[in-house]
Amino acid sequence: MIMIMIMKMIMIMIIIMIMIMIMVIMIIIIIIMIMIMDNDNIMIMIIMIMVMVMIMIMIMIMIMVMIMIMIMIMIMIMIMIMIMIMIMIMIMIMIMIMIMIMIIMIMIMIMIMVIIM
């Protein structure tokens, strides 16, 4: 379980790194475009950059939220398993006690039988 969690975390980290890389590349490309363009299109380009950055930030936030949800679910599952194990142990103990009581009852019955005989 913990191994799976670590693996998922690593995967998510890699995805975030890739996102950041894409963002940087986008910005570089846009800067180059601005250099090539004349003054008329610079404003449009700046707006484009702003939009791009906004979208990237949104995606990043979405990923973060996803990660949080994943972790929450993992923790929930862990807790569920713990509770299940606890319940299992409780049931086992109950059964043991029941068996003990049964044995004692049988012993008493036998004793009574012996006494009567």
Automatic annotation (TrEMBL):
<keyword id="KW-0812">Transmembrane</keyword>
<protein>
    <submittedName>
        <fullName>Uncharacterized protein</fullName>
    </submittedName>
</protein>
<keyword id="KW-0472">Membrane</keyword>
<feature type="transmembrane region" description="Helical">
    <location>
        <begin position="42"/>
        <end position="62"/>
    </location>
</feature>
<feature type="transmembrane region" description="Helical">
    <location>
        <begin position="95"/>
        <end position="116"/>
    </location>
</feature>
<feature type="transmembrane region" description="Helical">
    <location>
        <begin position="12"/>
        <end position="36"/>
    </location>
</feature>
<feature type="transmembrane region" description="Helical">
    <location>
        <begin position="69"/>
        <end position="89"/>
    </location>
</feature>
<keyword id="KW-1133">Transmembrane helix</keyword>
